[in-house]
Design brief:
Blueprint: H1 2-22, H2 25-36, H3 38-56, H4 60-93, H5 97-115, H6 127-151, H7 157-182, H8 184-200, H9 206-217, H10 226-229, H11 231-249, H12 260-266, H13 275-284, H14 294-302, H15 307-312, H16 322-341, H17 358-365, H18 370-395, H19 428-448, E1 449-460, E2 465-477, E3 482-483, H20 488-493, H21 497-515, E4 523-528, H22 530-533, H23 538-545, E5 555-561, H24 569-581, E6 585-591, H25 597-603, E7 608-611, H26 613-617, H27 624-637, E8 641-645, H28 650-658, E9 663-665, E10 673-674, H29 675-693
Parallel strand pairs: 2-4, 4-5, 5-6, 6-7, 7-8, 8-9
Antiparallel strand pairs: 1-2, 1-9, 1-10, 2-3
Helix pairs in contact: 1-19, 2-4, 3-4, 4-5, 4-6, 5-6, 5-7, 6-7, 9-16, 12-17, 13-14, 13-18, 16-18
Length: 702
């Protein structure tokens, strides 16, 4: 029972840690950059495979050309990651991509020159340095921009961006000069320490060999290839193996047990983590949702390329699956080292490329040893035994519906079971899969069409005049199909709702200025998610979009959704007060359908309350009308305009008017409409109002 409790508690803690990682913006930047080089890694693997095939078939010149090409891909990877950190940061924080990329590369160049005055920049970059410089430079620019915005010396934000770029670059340059001039000895000591630390992982004996296994596998938790992190170790290790084999051929020295080919044979079958065993486990589970990965991952695994599996399962940021991903290579190392040390299998006498299919590689590198092939099969079988419980556990995770997804945090709203045997079903793997899937869906949307704006009119019931427009987002595919905003759940899951809200706000206001200037005294209502309300960029974006004047009498209104839980109510109240100080109206949407209805009325500064359609549907129930009337009276106590949504029939309209409601939004009047149709409606309304106010002809005045 105690073991079961510890197991359940471990799963619970792993799930919570994964949720925190998936919602950390620094982790986002690293994962985005590592995913960016997945195609590069795959192409590099295929190029190495082509080189091996050419070398085997006697096309030596082609083999050399392909090998030189893969070296170029390897040298390019850190620079690509550095640039993509900047791109991700710019998109996430709505900054100039050009400035962010320039700053990221400049920071990398400065840092690289600090470490080594003779370094060739484009040929000698480590991935840790590329990532660290990208994150550091762009985060520093973000801090500088925030402080410059507080000064409010420039009305145009473009000046702030330019000044913050050069200010950040200056700070980095001064900081670097200070280190180079004032702490050169400390810098050298620090570099010597790092070099000595990295050499600790050099597999010179049995214990250091275990450290090397961990070096190759653990960084994959953050999407980082251990081979790329400490490339110097692998270069030295490969050179040492060549010398050792040459000495063995001349009878000067026995063969070493450890070599790069040793790890490729026994610890990297199918790629890092011995993922051939994982592929077999997935194949064995007929109902596994991950079987769709096999069509891509299995063929690549033949050549020991497993990035599609690592990011698709995923292993990245998955604290559960990283356990067997590390344990299986460790087990393989121990078994293979022991078998080799006891002369049960021969030591490696041939250098074989890592991209060679594993069974063939074992056969060739061991000098055509049958016992080595049997050992390979044993290790794969043991790997299946280790992976299988984790794969089976992942299948027990039930995928919750959207109602269980907290739209602010992206975490599942699940209660802890009282029966400890139920806890292993806790959704610790679904979190990672849903996050990766959301990213894929967003990319698919962006590549298959464009986002467009629709508008739904809000009508004053006393004269049926359109007084406001709620702006809504739709997706239009390349074929012309219009999709309602079901895709917003993907943006909520990945924490990108602020990007969507800002886009809608900017484009809607631009559209109003360009196409609806004839209409006067209107309100443009924009939905603002809880994520956006607590986003530090909101105030800056609002000032930017309101820098240009709106048409005569137009006002901007923010709709906050009562049905979505707000986890920082104090901060939200402060933000809404600032918005009202800028002349923005605040409306509470979906009133009566969510978490804390009365609490919202007293906590937040509101100008309008939008009653949810559930109030209209309730009119068909006994006392439904009386309930609606009491709700309207309650809203009037806080001196807010009252609008009801979802009116679709004449009878519903009559009842809501009797209840004292001022405004209405529903299909009875207008469905959500494209911008050009709304413009036509407003033009016709403007003409009618002009005629009704025109002075009538009186013959007696002649």
């Amino acid at each position: 029972m105690r073991k079961l409790w510890l197991y359940n508690n471990l799963l619970h803690r792993l799930h919570n840690s994964q949720s925190r990682l998936l919602n950390n913006r620094f982790a986002h930047a690293i994962i985005a950059s590592t995913m960016a080089i997945v195609p590069l890694s795959i192409v590099r693997g295929l190029v190495i495979t082509a080189s091996v095939i050419c070398d085997t078939t006697g096309f030596n010149n082609a083999a050399i050309w392909f090998m030189q090409l893969q070296v170029g891909f390897l040298a390019l990877a850190p620079l690509v990651m550095n640039i993509y950190v900047a791109v991700h940061w710019a998109v996430r924080n709505r900054l100039s991509q050009i400035y962010c990329i320039a700053l990221s590369i400049s920071t990398l160049m400065i840092f690289r020159r600090i470490l080594d005055d003779n370094a060739q920049f484009f040929l000698d970059i480590s991935i840790p340095l590329a990532l660290a410089s990208g994150v550091f430079g762009n985060y520093l620019q973000e801090v500088v921009s925030e402080n410059l915005l507080k000064l409010r010396l420039w009305k145009d934000n473009s000046y702030t961006n330019i000044i913050s770029f050069f200010a950040t670059l200056g700070i980095i340059a001064l900081f670097s000069c200070a280190i180079k001039l004032g702490a050169a000895i400390w810098l050298k000591s620090g570099m010597d320490f790092l070099n000595n630390l990295s050499m600790y992982f050099y597999p010179k004996d049995f214990l250091h060999g275990i450290s090397y296994v961990l070096l190759r596998t653990v960084p994959w938790f953050f999407g980082l290839h251990g081979y790329y992190l400490f490339l110097d170790i692998d270069v030295a290790f490969t050179a040492a193996q060549k010398i050792n084999i040459n000495d063995w051929h001349t009878l000067h020295h026995p063969l070493n047990i450890l070599s790069p080919v040793f790890y490729d044979m026994w610890c990297n079958a199918g790629g890092t983590g011995n993922t051939v065993s994982l592929i077999i486990c997935i194949f064995m589970e007929a109902k596994s949702p991950h079987r769709r990965l096999l069509g891509v991952a299995a063929p690549m695994a033949i050549f020991n390329i497993n990035e599609p599996l690592i990011f698709g399962y995923p292993i990245v940021l998955n604290p559960v699956m990283i356990i067997p991903f590390v344990l299986v290579p460790l087990m393989s190392y121990l078994v293979a080292y022991g078998a080799t040390y006891l002369d049960m299998v021969p030591r490696i006498s041939e250098i074989v490329s890592w991209s060679t299919p594993s069974p063939v590689k074992v056969w060739l590198a061991s000098g055509h040893s049958v016992s080595a092939v049997f050992l390979y099969l044993l290790i794969i079988s043991l790997g299946v035994v280790i992976y299988r419980p984790f794969v089976t556990t992942s299948l027990k995770q039930s995928v919750p519906d959207n109602s269980d997804l907290d739209l602010l945090t992206g975490e599942m709203n699940m209660t802890q079971p009282t029966d400890f045997e139920m806890v292993p079903n806790y959704s610790h793997i679904v979190e990672g899969n849903s996050y990766i899937e959301a990213q894929r869906q967003i990319e698919k949307l962006q590549n298959s069409g464009q986002f467009i704006l629709y508008f739904q009119p809000q009508v004053r019931l006393s004269d049926h005049i359109i007084v406001a427009l709620e702006v809504l987002i739709r997706h239009q595919s390349d074929s012309g199909k219009i999709t309602p905003p079901v895709f917003l759940k993907y943006y909520e899951r990945t924490g990108l709702m602020p990007e969507m809200d800002f886009w809608v706000m900017e484009h809607a206001l631009d559209y109003v200025r360009e196409n609806m200037s004839d209409a006067e005294n209107m309100t443009l209502s924009v939905n603002i998610s809880p994520q956006t309300l607590v986003d530090y960029r909101l105030l800056n974006v609002v000032r930017k979009v309101l820098a240009k004047p709106l048409p005569t009498g137009w006002q901007l209104e923010f709709e906050i959704t009562e049905s979505q839980k707000v986890q920082e109510p104090v901060r939200v109240a402060e933000v809404l007060e600032k918005m009202r100080s800028l002349g923005i109206k605040i409306a509470l949407d979906d009133f009566g359908s969510g978490y804390s209805t009365l609490h919202y009325l007293t906590r937040y500064p509101l100008d309008k309350i939008k009653l949810d359609r559930s109030m209209v549907l309730g009119l068909a129930k006994p006392d439904g009308f009386n309930f609606l009337r009491q709700v309207v009276k309650l809203c009037m106590v806080v001196k807010c305009e009252v609008l009801i949504e979802g009116v679709e029939t004449q009878d519903e309209l009559a009842q809501v008017q009797m209840a004292g409601i001022e405004f209405c939004q529903g299909y009875f009047f207008h469905r959500p409409l494209p911008g050009n149709v709304v413009c036509q409606l407003l033009t016709e309304q403007h003409k009618k109002m002009s005629l009704s106010h025109a002075p009538r002809f009186n013959p007696q005045q002649i």
